[in-house]
């Protein structure tokens, strides 16, 4: 994975850059921030000859630029003896996010710094507490001469710490190649949008908050699948909902999805075994009149009803008349 350094677009709006730096100064400053020798800690070793070669300048021009940035702009320090350069406010833009991988890488690189006064100078501009504490642990009031006297002892210690240094180197390498943060950067860059510094910083905050990179990647994949307009914001909303459901790891998410699949499978099986509901047959009108008889209207049926009381009176009257005749 390629190594890269952040350069914020606000660089071009900085009053000092706009008003105090010439075009050559701006070019040189960008070189100091992004050249191949830069490190995670803002302190690295580089010779004036290398600077002159990279920029196409003479040794004298390279030396003059270093002196101008050191004495006039006061934004770098250069140790002519150790060939180390330090950039002021490096930590303000490149070390504002902590985490174990970052801290391990910082510790590994700080061990290689020979002029420890540069560590203090850069450390004063770091806003992240966890990173600044690491810098403070390397502060040393001794001079470069004092460091030379200890150099022999350090060389002996290096042999004993060779295994540990190898491990630290591997940890540092993992930060730039296979760390969780790099996975998020790579996925976002390939599937969502080119990763600008602001986006990279935001992804770092998400990783610090939710920890589980696989869970975050699942949320991002869900946003891509649903073709969300703002996919990173959509993924954050998904993560918030999962957290409300007490889902904070990718394993918990998988368990939830498995439960939902089982529930759907059971519901499908139950519906397939249910008996069909009975039908109500409607008898057509023609079936009742299949003998060719016309249905009797309700009104006619009502009129043809026999009045039994009236008939009884008639019979009694007839019997009475008959008895009177016979008498």
From TrEMBL:
<feature type="domain" description="DnaB/C C-terminal">
    <location>
        <begin position="186"/>
        <end position="256"/>
    </location>
</feature>
<feature type="region of interest" description="Disordered">
    <location>
        <begin position="145"/>
        <end position="172"/>
    </location>
</feature>
<feature type="region of interest" description="Disordered">
    <location>
        <begin position="254"/>
        <end position="306"/>
    </location>
</feature>
<protein>
    <submittedName>
        <fullName>Replication protein</fullName>
    </submittedName>
</protein>
<dbReference type="InterPro" id="IPR006343">
    <property type="entry name" value="DnaB/C_C"/>
</dbReference>
<feature type="compositionally biased region" description="Polar residues">
    <location>
        <begin position="265"/>
        <end position="274"/>
    </location>
</feature>
<dbReference type="InterPro" id="IPR034829">
    <property type="entry name" value="DnaD-like_sf"/>
</dbReference>
<comment type="similarity">
    <text>Belongs to the DnaB/DnaD family.</text>
</comment>
<feature type="compositionally biased region" description="Basic and acidic residues">
    <location>
        <begin position="146"/>
        <end position="167"/>
    </location>
</feature>
<dbReference type="Pfam" id="PF07261">
    <property type="entry name" value="DnaB_2"/>
</dbReference>
<dbReference type="InterPro" id="IPR053162">
    <property type="entry name" value="DnaD"/>
</dbReference>
